[in-house]
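Thread amino acids onto this structure.
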């Protein structure tokens, strides 16, 4: 049986929100992947919707098959345009490093060489070279954790924190996570800031090596 309600909270960055049913009671969680509309528009606060309610063990009620009120049931089950386009282009959806690899991989190799050179000439502490792989591994894990949270409808890692990992030197692991996990690899605004963190970190490293005698 389908219920009616209104979207009272929507977090576009995290891809989830809450619906308040017409009968009152506890606000009901829903994820963007459970929202279907022929227009392809995202949910918004104040939107009247129809949905099916399920119970998730220990987590309270959850709304699925969410659609704008008055839309047909067929529209609710129709795959989102992005998902359809994703299937129509299997080459672009295949997992594995690809985007910008011709630039990033040589840059990663050059970065490792510069770190090694800095340690050899005592311009950098040895632990900086040793810590670099760990920072990149932690950056990769932060992306994985964020994607896992998005799929499960849980609280996600902020984009600012992801960028801080890149700025701290984990930009290589961040890039690898974007390609392997297919996470944050299509959001232009995010990638622009990510690119800035790479440039900023490398520039800071270069300035330090130039300054230290």
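Threaded sequence (213 positions):
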């Amino acid at each position: 049986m389908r219920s009616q309600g209104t979207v009272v909270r929507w977090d576009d960055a995290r891809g989830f929100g809450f619906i308040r049913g017409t009968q009152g009671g506890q606000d009901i969680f829903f994820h963007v992947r459970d929202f279907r509309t022929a227009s392809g528009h995202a949910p918004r606060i104040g939107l009247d919707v129809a949905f099916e309610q399920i119970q998730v063990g220990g987590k309270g009620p959850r709304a699925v098959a969410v659609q704008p009120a008055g839309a047909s049931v067929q529209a609710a089950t129709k795959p989102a345009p992005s998902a359809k386009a994703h299937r129509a282009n299997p080459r672009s959806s295949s997992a594995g490093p690809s985007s910008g690899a011709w630039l990033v991989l040589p840059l990663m190799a050059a970065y490792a060489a510069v770190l090694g050179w800095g340690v050899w000439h005592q311009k950098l502490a040895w632990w900086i070279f040793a810590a670099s792989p760990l920072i990149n591994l932690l950056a990769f894990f932060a992306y994985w954790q964020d994607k896992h949270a998005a799929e499960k409808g849980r609280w996600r890692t902020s984009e600012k924190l992801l960028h801080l990992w890149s700025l701290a030197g984990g930009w290589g692991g961040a890039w690898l996570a974007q390609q392997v996990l297919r996470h944050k690899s299509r959001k232009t605004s995010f990638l622009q800031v990510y690119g800035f963190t790479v440039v900023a970190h490398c520039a800071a490293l270069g300035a330090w090596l130039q300054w230290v005698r």
